[in-house]
Amino acid sequence: MPTDARSELTIEPFTPVALDGAAVLLADRHRRHRLVKPLLDPVFESVDGARGAIEEALAADLASGVVARRDGEIAGYMIGQQKDPAVWGPNVWVEAAGHAATEPAIVRDMYAVLAGQWVAAGRANHHVLVPATDSGLVDAWFSLDFGQQHVHAIREVPVAAFGVVPGSELVIRAPTRDDIDALAELELVLPRHLRSSPVFSTLQMEPLEEVRAEVEADLDDPKYTWFVAAQDGAVVGSGIGCALSVSGGHRGPNAAPGAAFLAYAAVFPEARGLGAGRALGEAILAWARDTGYPSIATDWRSANIEADRAWRGLGFRPTFRRLHRLIG
Hints:
About 35% of the residues lie in helices and about 30% in strands. It is of the alpha+beta class and about 325 residues long.
């Protein structure tokens, strides 16, 4: 059992007896987070809500965790889990409910113990979600050679529509089945863009035929609301809105009660500069408002400069930063 004599800090495996103490830490972290991001779900400010989120993390695939104790009291905890290795390779994710500590430096000690185990098991691709407003916690992870990869953000829905695009130049409308070919091509625009500089994503792209079949199925799925941007009758962009609960990437403390989700937006490269991306974003904001959602969330790769400008320009404010470290 590693011990830091200077701080009387001990690191030990996470066992059920630590649940209550860990839940107190997460509830406190979330309470402080909501002071500046009040749209996040208040349920995780309660010890019971926080405990449920931690139990979910512990039940995930290949979950492993530690607790830090100082003078016998729990001063921190960390839990890592695995996501689909076919997508992410041998990986570990410390999700939104996956860590909290009484002081940021404790994160370094806990990660040092767990990372040794993870790398020894061949899992060298590490991700962590950190409250965007907690500069001390972000700095602690940066000091461990993590860098920012992804941004989760939220905003309240607008009280009134804003931005007017002349119909003679650009039309925002619902798609028809005649648009399926264009929609399938647009579904590949973002992943293709992310593979280029400066993002350099290595996620695999699906074949167009599979994407087209998915679009055909999803177009009739009531969970999704689609929009297209058309110029002179030709589809040049698309966007999708849905409930945030449909998104697997916004869970636990990273969720907002009853929120909508800007799930996707893309514009053909040759049509950029027409204002289609912003118009699609505004259409989804207006849809969320008119459907009765109180807020709307989205996320993007932080190195995707165009998305970073677009979604911040539409008023989205970061809630969590996804940090990444690849050891190798």
